[in-house]
Amino acid sequence: DAGVTQSPTHLIKTRGQQVTLRCSPKSGHDTVSWYQQALGQGPQFIFQYYEEEERQRGNFPDRFSGHQFPNYSSELNVNALLLGDSALYLCASSNWAYGETQYFGPGTRLLVL
Amino acid sequence: AQSVSQHNHHVILSEAASLELGCNYSYGGTVNLFWYVQYPGQHLQLLLKYFSGDPLVKGIKGFEAEFIKSKFSFNLRKPSVQWSDTAEYFCAVTLPLDDYKLSFGAGTTVTVRA
User: Fold this and answer.
1) Do A104 and B103 touch (CB under 8 A)?
2) A102 touches chain B (CB under 8 A)
3) What are the phi and psi torsion angles at A85 (to 5°)?
4) pLDDT tens digits, residue range B71-106?
5) pLDDT higher than 90, residue A61
6) What percentage of residues in chain B have a pLDDT greater than 70?
7) Which residues pair with A7 in a beta bridge?
8) Checking CA distances to A3, which of A24, A31, A59, B17 falls within 20 to 30 Å?
């Protein structure tokens, strides 16, 4: 039973570029949430997808957008990258009907130069 | 806005010592409470969770946490730590109508010396 997988593991971009991160949820899960974890801080909620729609959003600008596909996998897109976007981006999956407990992937480490 | 405070940034212990990590949250209503752990080089894993019922919750690897509603606290404990407990520990909460939005504390780094 595969857990949550994310790709790529590491990424280096320059300011102003765009980036796409990918996530495959744990088997049996249909809900994907994205979090940003800056160095030395706890994860911050970006948004959550269910049934291919954004259901909730945290306090992040519109430069952060996402998508969920029919197979429940998800993408996080960040446009016009800033130095401050450097962080570990975590994907978490859960089952909408059974709720509450989220399972996290290993994350994508993004460095913006 | 919901906030979570973890009192200790870094805790250093010797093996067999007892561990207690503090966690306080700011929301006055019903909350769901979690402790997650991140071992070096590994992803976040759920240690334990509290939704309702017995305020003393037992989790994996000998950890437990006590929910004290009057103190808005959910402290994590382990009677005797091992070197393998070296990790970063995060307290998190969700609101009942906001189940998918985990609000995390800043984390506590625990270093256990052999």
Assistant:
1) no
2) yes
3) -80, -5
4) 999 999 999 999 999 999 999 998 877 767 899 999
5) yes
6) 97
7) A22
8) A59
Query: What pLDDT, on a 0 to 100 scale, did the predictor assign at position B1?
Result: 59
Q: In sequence order, which residues have a C-beta less than 8 Å from that of residue B52 and are 6 or more positions away?
A: none
Interface residues on B facing A, Cβ-Cβ cutoff 8 A:
4, 32, 36, 42-46, 49, 51, 90, 92, 94, 98-107
Chain B nearest C-alpha distance from A53 (Å): 14
Q: Is A40 on the interface with B (CB under 8 A)?
A: yes
Question: CB within 8 A of B31, min separation 6: which ones?
Answer: B25, B93, B94, B95, B96
3-state secondary structure of A5: strand
**Pairing relationship of beta strands B10-14 and B108-113 according to DSSP bridges:** parallel
| Nearest-CB residue to B104 (from A42, A101, A105) | A42
CB pair distance less than 8 Å for B101 and A35:
no
Inter-chain residue contact B90 with A42, CB threshold 8 Å: yes
Residue A86: burial class (beta carbons within 10 Å; 0-12, 13-18, 19+):
middle
Q: Which of A1-15, A78-92, B26-40 has the highest mean pLDDT?
A: A78-92
Task: Specify whether the CB–CB gap between A95 and A102 falls below 8 A.
Answer: no
* Cβ–Cβ gap B32/A90 under 8 Å: no
Say whether A48 and B101 touch across the interface (CB within 8 A): yes
Question: And the tokens for B49?
Answer: 């969770």
At A42 the pLDDT is: 93
Share above pLDDT 90 across residues of chain B, in percent, rounded to a whole number = 78
